[in-house]
Design brief:
The chain is an alpha+beta fold and 195 residues long. The protein has two domains: 4-64, Nucleic acid-binding proteins (OB fold (Dihydrolipoamide Acetyltransferase, E2P)), CATH 2.40.50; 67-194, DNA polymerase, domain 1 (Orthogonal Bundle). It is 44% helix and 19% strand. The protein has a five-stranded antiparallel β-sheet, with helices on one face.
């Protein structure tokens, strides 16, 4: 298995790139989130990699951060999600935003990503919600999206034993407005008590 590459960029044509490592040109595919941070052609780069072996090809994928590669590998374990869909997902949404979508069960945000339909989004929610906390760097809502009051409230409700989708549903039922985290939690719990 090839875990990482360090060399000079020979060519870039999203999502493909070629890196010269000691005279050997490695062809990789990378998400747009990685492409945005690549240096110019001829410059040195270091990327984490994941090798996918198929009957007809060996395809090497490159990532700029450990979290991107970790999420890519987790996505490959979801039934019906292959490398192309995982790459499209990482190209269309950040790791943190994906974790936020899973925790809050935000179907609309996921189906905006090309190649992700409603059924795939629902499957991602079901299969990824238990894995999201085990992915280092994505653990807990407190690390997501700058810790907005909504994110902190979801995290608190999950800490109280609510499932992520249930916590998101309770918060969506709260009247819109700029509420503090404490106020959001209080109103969500009041709504749960009325049910």
């Amino acid at each position: 298995m090839i875990g990482s590459l360090r060399g000079r960029i020979q060519a870039k044509a999203p999502p493909q790139l070629m890196i010269d490592v000691g005279g050997v040109g490695y062809e990789l595919e990378a998400p747009m989130s990685t492409f945005f941070h690549l240096p110019a052609i001829g410059q040195e780069v270091s990327l984490l990699t994941h090798l996918v072996v198929r009957e007809d090809a060996h395809v090497l994928y490159g990532f700029g951060t450990p979290d991107e590669r970790r999420l890519f590998r987790a996505l490959l374990k979801v039934s019906g999600v292959g490398p192309k869909i995982a790459l499209a997902l990482l190209s269309g949404i950040s790791v943190e935003a994906f974790a936020q979508c899973v925790v809050t069960h935000d179907v609309a945000a996921l189906i905006r990503v090309p190649g992700i339909g409603r059924k795939t989004a629902e499957r991602l929610f079901i299969e990824m919600r238990d894995r999201i906390d085990s992915l280092s760097g994505m653990a807990g809502m407190s690390s997501l999206a700058g810790s907005t009051p909504e994110a902190e409230a979801v995290s608190a409700l999950i800490g109280l034993g609510y499932k992520p989708a249930e916590a998101a549903r309770l918060l969506k039922a709260v009247e819109p407005g700029s509420h503090s985290t404490e106020e959001l939690i209080r109103r969500a719990l009041q709504g749960a008590a009325r049910e």
